[in-house]
Q: What sequence folds into this?
C-alpha cells in the first residue's frame, strides 16, 4: 500500500495469506498433527494454574480481513498472563509515544528469565525489556491515570478493544497470584528505588496482577494479534485501537523479546514476532496478514507452550508467514529442537 506522508510517497509491502479454504485446512492440520503431543509441564508457581487440563489444545488464525479459522479448544478461556504485556505496552506507547517508553523501559532482550532480579541489577536498575516482569511493571506504571482504579480500568478496557469484546478478570487466579507474588513485589520496589516507578509500587503490582488474570481464549488472542497485524484496527469490530506506528514498535519488541530467553531461537526457526504466557497461550503476528492464537497448558523449560510452538512453526512454514523467508526451503531441525519444542 502506498501513502503520501509529509509529501513523500511511502509504501509497505507484506504479501497475502493463501485462499480461505487453504488456511482453514492448514489450521485443522496443525491441530491434528500436534493434538496427541504430550511433552511439557503445566506451570505451578502460581498455585491455581497447576489445575489446568494438560490435554487442552486450541489453534486459531485471524485474518486482517476479519475471517477466522479455528480448531480444537479455540473458545476455552484461560488467563492471559504475560501476553498482556504486549498489549499494555502498545496502549502505553499509544499514550506516551515511542521515545518516552523506549527510554524508561527499554527494548532489548535481557537473556535472563522473565522474573530476573539480576537482569535489573546488571543494568543499573534499567528494566531493559518490556516483556519481562520488571519492564512490564514499569510499563503498567506508565499508563496515565489519576488512581490505581482508573489505571486498571484503562488497561482492562484497552485490552478489551484489542479483543473486540469485554474481558473479565478471573478472581481465583488473581487471588492465587496475589498471595504468592513476592518476587514481583520485590521487583517493583527495586524499580522504585532506581527511580523507574514514580507511584506506589505495590499498587502497580496489584494492577499488573489483575491485567495478567484477564480471561481470554485462543480466538481472543488471535484477534488481538490480528489488530497489531492490521495497523491497529481490530479486524472484527473495525475499531481503531492504536496507531500503525505503535503496531510496528510493539511487533519489533516482540520479535526481540516475546518468547522469554528463547526469543532469538524462536525468531531464527519460526521468523514471527510472538508472545507467550505461562498459562499456555501464544500469539504470533504476521504483519499485514493476520495472527495465530494457540492455547495448550504444558510448557517447556523457558515457559513456552510446547504444542503451541509446534503449531505456530507448522503454520508459519505452510502459510508462508516467516518474515525473513523469500523462497520455500526445507524445514531445519536444529540441535536445540528437542529442548525447546520448535520442530
Ligand atoms: N503473572 C505472571 C507473573 O508475573 C506472568 C508470567 C508469564 O506469563 O510469563 O509471574
A:
Amino acid at each position: 500500500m502506498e501513502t503520501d506522508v509529509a509529501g513523500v510517497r511511502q509504501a509497505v509491502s507484506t504479501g497475502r495469506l493463501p485462499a480461505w479454504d487453504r488456511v482453514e485446512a492448514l489450521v485443522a492440520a496443525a491441530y491434528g498433527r500436534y493434538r496427541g503431543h504430550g511433552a511439557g509441564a503445566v506451570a505451578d508457581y502460581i498455585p491455581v494454574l497447576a489445575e489446568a487440563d494438560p490435554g487442552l489444545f486450541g489453534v486459531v488464525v485471524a485474518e486482517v480481513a476479519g475471517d477466522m479459522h479455528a480448531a480444537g479448544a479455540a473458545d476455552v478461556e484461560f488467563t492471559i498472563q504475560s501476553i498482556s504485556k504486549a498489549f499494555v505496552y502498545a496502549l502505553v506507547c499509544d499514550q506516551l509515544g515511542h521515545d518516552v517508553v523506549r527510554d524508561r523501559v527499554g527494548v532489548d532482550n535481557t537473556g535472563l528469565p522473565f522474573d530476573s532480579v539480576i537482569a535489573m541489577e546488571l543494568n543499573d536498575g534499567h528494566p531493559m525489556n518490556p516483556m519481562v516482569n520488571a519492564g512490564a511493571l514499569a510499563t503498567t506504571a506508565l499508563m496515565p491515570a489519576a488512581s490505581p482504579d482508573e489505571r486498571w480500568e484503562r488497561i482492562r478496557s484497552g485490552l478489551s478493544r484489542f479483543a473486540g469484546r469485554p474481558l473479565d478478570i478471573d478472581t481465583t487466579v488473581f487471588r492465587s497470584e496475589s498471595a504468592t507474588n513476592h518476587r514481583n513485589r520485590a521487583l517493583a520496589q527495586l524499580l522504585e528505588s532506581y527511580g523507574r516507578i514514580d507511584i506506589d509500587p505495590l499498587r502497580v503490582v496489584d494492577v499488573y496482577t489483575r491485567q495478567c488474570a484477564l480471561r481470554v481464549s485462543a480466538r481472543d488472542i488471535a484477534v488481538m494479534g490480528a489488530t497489531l497485524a492490521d495497523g491497529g484496527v481490530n479486524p472484527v469490530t473495525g475499531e481503531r485501537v492504536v496507531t500503525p506506528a505503535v503496531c510496528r514498535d510493539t511487533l519489533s519488541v516482540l520479535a526481540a523479546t516475546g518468547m522469554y530467553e528463547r526469543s532469538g531461537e524462536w525468531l531464527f526457526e519460526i521468523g514471527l514476532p510472538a508472545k507467550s504466557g505461562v498459562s499456555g497461550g501464544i500469539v504470533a503476528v504476521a504483519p499485514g496478514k493476520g495472527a495465530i492464537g494457540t492455547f495448550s497448558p504444558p510448557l517447556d523449560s523457558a515457559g513456552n507452550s510446547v504444542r503451541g510452538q509446534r503449531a505456530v512453526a507448522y503454520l508459519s512454514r505452510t502459510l508462508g508467514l516467516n518474515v525473513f523467508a523469500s523462497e520455500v526451503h526445507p524445514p531445519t531441525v536444529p540441535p536445540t529442537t528437542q529442548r525447546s519444542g520448535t520442530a
Remarks:
- The pocket of glutamic acid is lined by residues 81-82, 114-115, 133, 177, 184, 212, 277-278, 303 (CB under 6 Å).
- The beta strands are 2-5, 8-11, 58-63, 68-72, 78-79, 215-216, 274-276, 281-286, 290-295.
